[in-house]
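Hi, here's the filled form for the chain we discussed.

Project: internal
Contact: R.S.
Residues: 86
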Amino acid sequence: MLSAEDIASLGQHQMATAARSAGVEAPTSDETREMIRSLLRVFNGIDAPASAPVPVPTVKVTESELATALDGLAVVVKAAAQGVSR
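And the returned structure, exactly as it came back:
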């Protein structure tokens, strides 16, 4: 399990390393990295702050595209959670 401090300290390099080890593309924006931190807080039973950015979809995607994107994000989150040591 990760603490709130562990999650807050995750940087671009750590997320990129976790993504590479999972065989997926690394997050490329601060917004995506913050979304991963928010998901990790939820995954670890820590309430996400009310100020966490909520992405607003601006284009329609197919169900298949959404499923693929969510699957890739889940892999990155799992790899990041496993790759962070205390």
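Let me know if anything looks off before we file it.
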